[in-house]
Design the sequence.
């Protein structure tokens, strides 16, 4: 057992033997890179000049007034490509470049990570292949077009449930055959070690900025920090710099779909049990035979049957709390944020907003919270319009 | 002595190579699976794949087989029942489970191992459980030879190979192409060097798997390897023949014959 690959009993490297040397090479290159001032300088250069960081920590005035506590929004929706995903892509693609890889592969569900990866590949002149479930290709046609415009090849995956988990399976299979010249950019805080660590490292910029910004605005740490959790990339980035600040309450918001007591949700920590998928041990939605169940959420980005291993660990140790929010609660919060602050959030991020409204009721006017607004809602307008028209939703 | 190990010793004494096939349990149902196992008189070892929802180490043929088997109601429980039935009927052939780690974890490692021993499962191949993650399973397998863990190595395992082979049991499963089952066999020099290296390092028989269709496919390395494994091609053969047991028997007979006349 490789101790450093674990977060308590979670994590590890559950991949085929043919990937073990590859993971070891990535681990070494990554550890070297993050200690190399030149690498870090380049990473921050692109985050500033290309992505548009730092993103604002915005005090949502009307909401704060309405709920009687200070509500800050960390505006990851203002990043280039519309979400936090690009932070990690820039980091991993610079690492791929440093390792001499010329080809990039990625998996995508809603298409956000795929678009961010295709963007990075256009910028750094890499050959890009994105694996996407056949069902997602159909329902996210606009993002497929964006990726193709950016020069990526989008592979429609037809196996199993034809969604994100199957696209991830196919990306891992392709990687196992092509690892010599190909780098796999995982977008979520999942996968075999060192991926969960890399994703956290490259998303930690969210909390580093937010902590400093909050300190400047309030002269203290926030009382509560919250973010939505699918695989858990924006949330681990939002938590990273606060994990060792015990007075800051950390809350992750899972997608409860139509309710955690139905069969249609994506609440892997509320309702799942530990198991192994996509190279890591963590909480999973699974049946009694260990087969993975389909997740359901109105938000494609949270529609995943597992969660990153560090979240599983933070859950078990009690350092972070994970709570479910249903589709309809998220949609109500999305509309409320849109109409009170003029910000249309991604449906993923709206889950965090929904819980924030609940949480605010037990807080005081001199307390404050930070919500990670992980992405903007432009990509969701079709889903939102179908939902508002009462047609249910595509996901 | 473990059933796989005693059978392979017999083959070695007779200067014979081993022929191993893979089928997915419950494809198209458990009765036909039993029939396919029994029909292959000349096959030395059967790999029985336990269908899993997310088979990341398998190519399209086995993925599809796994998916169909699950839709047809295949489960781990039913596979254990099949094993017990076969053993009760006197089927003495070594049978190895090929399965993903979550199937074991879902059952609970200790309980799973106990059930394997009771059902006469001779070995386990777990393609997503590399050496570093095998501790818990090895601990559970300790102290009883009935069920053993089979090790896999790949062409890019390189300096990991001596470590993996140190306490390996039964046989070594060599992946011939890079990583995923069912890819076209590509027997270039590197593959020959790799097999030679594994053979040099190994105290136990070395089997080559992934991408083999006929005995002729392994002719170039006949002096290195101790046997051949056919997976995807055998499943395709079964499906295309409408699960004709005669076809299974014939294939087993011909492959084994040719394998020993290469």
Sequence:
């Amino acid at each position: 057992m490789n101790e450093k690959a674990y977060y308590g009993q979670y994590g590890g490297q559950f991949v085929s033997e043919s990937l073990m040397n590859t993971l070891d090479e990535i681990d070494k290159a990554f550890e070297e890179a993050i200690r190399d001032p030149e690498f870090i300088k380049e990473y921050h250069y692109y985050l500033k000049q290309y992505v548009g960081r730092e993103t604002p920590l915005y005090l949502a005035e009307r909401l704060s007034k309405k709920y009687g506590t200070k509500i800050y929004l960390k505006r990851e929706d203002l990043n280039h490509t519309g979400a936090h995903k690009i932070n990690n892509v820039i980091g991993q693609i610079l690492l791929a470049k440093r390792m001499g890889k010329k080809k990039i592969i990625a998996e995508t569900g809603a298409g956000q990570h795929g678009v961010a990866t295709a963007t990075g590949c256009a910028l750094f002149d890499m050959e890009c292949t994105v694996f996407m479930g056949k069902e997602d290709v159909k329902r996210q046609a606009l993002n497929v077009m964006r990726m193709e415009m950016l020069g990526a090849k989008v592979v429609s995956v037809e196996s199993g449930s034809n969604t994100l988990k199957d696209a991830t399976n196919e990306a891992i299979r392709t990687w196992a055959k092509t690892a010599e010249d190909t780098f796999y950019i995982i977008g979520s805080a999942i996968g075999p070690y060192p991926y969960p660590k890399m994703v956290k490292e490259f998303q930690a910029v969210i909390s580093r900025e937010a902590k400093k910004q909050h300190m400047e605005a309030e002269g203290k740490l926030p009382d509560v920090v919250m973010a939505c959790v699918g695989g858990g990339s924006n949330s681990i980035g939002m938590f990273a710099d606060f994990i060792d600040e015990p007075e800051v309450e950390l809350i992750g918001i899972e997608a409860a779909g139509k309710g955690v007591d139905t069969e249609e949700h994506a609440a892997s920590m509320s309702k799942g049990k530990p198991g192994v998928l996509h190279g890591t041990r963590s909480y999973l939605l699974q049946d009694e035979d260990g087969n993975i169940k389909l997740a359901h959420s109105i938000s494609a980005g949270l529609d995943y049957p597992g969660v990153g291993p560090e979240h599983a660990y933070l859950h078990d140790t009690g350092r972070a709390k994970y709570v479910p929010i249903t589709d309809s609660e998220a949609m109500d919060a999305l509309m409320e944020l849109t109409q009170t602050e003029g910000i249309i959030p991604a449906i993923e991020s709206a889950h965090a907003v929904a819980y924030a409204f609940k949480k605010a009721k037990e807080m005081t006017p001199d307390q404050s919270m930070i919500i990670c607004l992980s992405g903007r809602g432009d990509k969701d307008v079709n889903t939102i319009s179908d939902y508002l028209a009462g047609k249910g939703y595509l996901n | 002595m473990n059933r796989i190990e005693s059978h392979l010793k017999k083959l070695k004494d007779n200067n014979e190579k081993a022929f191993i096939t893979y089928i997915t349990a419950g494809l198209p149902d458990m009765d036909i699976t039993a029939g396919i196992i029994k029909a292959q008189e000349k096959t030395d070892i059967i790999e029985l794949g336990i269908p899993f929802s997310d088979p990341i180490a398998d190519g399209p043929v086995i993925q599809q087989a796994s998916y169909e088997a699950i839709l047809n109601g295949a489960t781990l429980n039913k596979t254990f029942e099949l094993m017990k039935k076969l053993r009760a009927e006197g089927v003495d052939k070594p049978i190895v489970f090929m399965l993903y780690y979550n199937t074991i974890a879902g059952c609970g490692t200790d309980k799973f191992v106990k059930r394997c021993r009771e059902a006469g499962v001779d070995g386990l191949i777990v393609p997503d459980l590399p050496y570093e993650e095998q501790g818990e399973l090895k601990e559970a397998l300790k102290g009883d030879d009935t069920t053993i863990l089979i090790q896999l190595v790949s062409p890019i395992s390189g300096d990991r190979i001596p470590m993996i082979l140190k306490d390996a049991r039964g046989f070594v499963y060599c992946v011939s192409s890079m990583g995923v089952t069912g890819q076209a066999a590509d027997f270039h020099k590197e593959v020959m060097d790799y097999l030679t290296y594994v053979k040099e390092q190994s105290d136990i028989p070395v089997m080559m798997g992934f991408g083999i269709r006929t005995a002729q496919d392994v002719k170039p390395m006949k002096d290195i390897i101790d046997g051949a494994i056919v997976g995807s091609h055998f499943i395709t053969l079964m499906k295309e023949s409408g699960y004709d047991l005669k076809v299974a028997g014939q294939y087993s007979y011909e492959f084994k014959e040719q394998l020993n006349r290469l």
